[in-house]
Design goal:
By secondary structure, the protein is an all-alpha fold. The protein has one domain: Orthogonal Bundle (Tetracycline Repressor, domain 2), CATH 1.10.357. Helices cover 74% and strands 0% of the residues. Helix 1 packs across helix 7. It is globular, with a radius of gyration of 18 Å.
Length: 194
């Protein structure tokens, strides 16, 4: 029995959604096609009806994962000032909640190191996602464009590094210190005008 186009599209979306979460939890190499399809509630054999390769899937799931970062960026609400939007994003990014739930968090902190060793296609998609985050931050900073972009890149690097380190240490006291120090540094960078 052939599946309708609507059902096929729905299954495709279910795979991408489940995969975006699993990629952030397990990384590229830690995610098997069988586990992915099981998480989506589908059979293993159906994967290649939806994707030409695992790389093709990783590209789509990476786009979806960066879409989740867009949700984090809207934490302050649409009527908030640029500074409030940036502060809310930074506060959530550098929170225990984000550290404790990599499956719903930022793909940069979750599997960025692995993406650096992935195919050119995956790296290109990852680059586009990172570029989008840097641009969003830069648009909310004061000063000349070159300095705003530089500070935005530094802020993102501080936030990502802090989350990676906080997830790795396992000590609540050290995790809190790392996250609070990063929140302070990102606030300083947001307030600086060069």
């Amino acid at each position: 029995m052939r599946m309708s186009r609507e059902a096929m599209a729905q299954h495709h979306q279910e795979i991408v959604t489940a995969g975006a979460r699993l990629l952030r939890e397990r990384g590229i190499e830690g995610l098997s096609v069988a586990d992915l399809m099981q998480a989506a509630g589908l059979t293993h054999g159906g994967f290649y009806r939806h994707f030409a390769s695992k790389d093709a899937f990783v590209c789509e799931a990476t786009d979806a994962a960066f879409g989740g970062v867009a949700g984090m960026r809207n934490a302050a609400g649409p009527d908030s000032s640029a500074g409030e939007q940036l502060a809310a994003f930074s506060d959530f990014y550098l929170s225990q909640a984000h550290c404790g739930e990599p499956g719903i968090g930022c793909p940069i902190a979750a599997y960025g190191a692995e993406a650096a060793r992935a195919s050119g296609e995956v790296r290109a998609r990852f680059n586009a996602g990172v570029e989008g985050v840097v641009e969003w931050i830069a648009e909310r900073l004061d000063g000349p464009e070159v300095q705003r972009r530089r500070r935005a890149a530094e802020m993102l690097a501080v936030m990502v590094g802090a989350v990676v380190a906080a997830r790795a240490v396992g000590s609540a006291g050290l995790t809190d210190l790392i996250l609070s120090s990063a929140r302070q540094r990102t606030a300083e960078l947001a307030a600086a005008v060069h």
